[in-house]
Amino acid sequence: MAARVTKRTKAILSSGLHPHYVSLAKTMAKFTGDQLMTSAPDLSAETDSEQLLTAIDADTSCVVVQYPDILGRIEDLSAIAAKAHEQGALLVAVVTEPVALGAIRSPGEMGADVVVGEGQSIGVGLQFGGPYVGLFACKEKFVRQMPGRLCGETVDAEGKRGFVLTLSTREQHIRREKATSNICTNAGLCALAFSIHMTLLGERGLRDLAALNHAQAVSAAERLEKVPGVSLVNESFFNEFTLKLPKEARPVVRALADRKVLGGVSLGRLYPGNPVLEKGLVVAVTEVVTPEDIEAFAIALEEVLA
């Protein structure tokens, strides 16, 4: 989409972007001819915003960042958006936890042109990897370059409110050779569950849910940081944060699972062969986690690391 808008093919991917997303982008680039710039993150509180600002130039089509990023870090995107727009590029933000937007500034407020994300955590149960509900938003001036369809509100002949297909650039209709998408999956049930949950929450409910998530995560981070040899990487986070362990995290995760504790995701699994990141452990704490869960996790971690 950014390549169509800017007529450029160089995309800068933040090191804070989930490696699975990077892998998919690399696969797509083999067929589209896009040039991708990317790297692995550092196990530190600092993001790669300075490197991104330096890399943006007149050949850049877009800068892709994750918010919060793979380590749970939160960065103000305003400077990156300003530099991208100065060079005629787009800022694309990936939001994997929409509940976070009840507590932190939205990417759009900071100048993002395109925002994509996953809505699973709002009303859609864990389904062994899917199906889930994808979220896609952009500035109005780019709306005709969006893949997929748009529905709008209207009234019927009797004056009743209804929703209809208002914009479709799909290949099964006219001008197929200029289609922007050929994705035909029916995710209507997931979208319905998401919509119901959002309706029940409302703005206040979403903000309360976000506050609860963050409070639980802070409590967990403070407790786990007291485990000997464990340090907290993040200076800021929402409900995911990264711990640095004194040893490789993958066997630690396995040992925790043997104790019936799901202790997070090892960065060594996501970045195999990286000796720095292999000691990183990403932990998520949501509203369903109790103080007893946190204490059980901390005790089990102490036992495994002893």
Defining traits:
four-stranded antiparallel sheet; alpha/beta; Aspartate Aminotransferase, domain 1; single chain; Aspartate Aminotransferase, domain 2; globular
The assigned CATH architecture of the largest domain is 3-Layer(aba) Sandwich
The CATH class of the largest domain turns out to be: Alpha Beta
How confident is the prediction overall: mean pLDDT? 92
Q: How many angstroms separate the termini?
A: 51 Å
Our estimate of the beta-strand percent is 15-25%
Gross morphology = globular
Strand order within the widest beta sheet: 2-1-3-4-5-6
Instruction: Estimate nothing, just give the exact number of structural domains.
Output: 2
Oligomer: single chain
Query: Which parts are unreliable, with pLDDT below 50 for 5 consecutive residues or more?
Result: none
- Major sheet: 6 strands, mixed
Contiguous helical run count = 8
Q: Mind telling me the CATH superfamily name of the largest domain?
A: Type I PLP-dependent aspartate aminotransferase-like (Major domain)
Could you spell the SSE succession in H and E letters?
HEHEHEHEEEEEHEEHEHEH
**Number of DSSP E strands:** 12
What level of helicity do the residues show? 25-40%
Integer-rounded radius of gyration: 21 Å
**Helix/strand/pairing category:** alpha/beta
CATH fold-level label of the largest domain? Aspartate Aminotransferase, domain 2
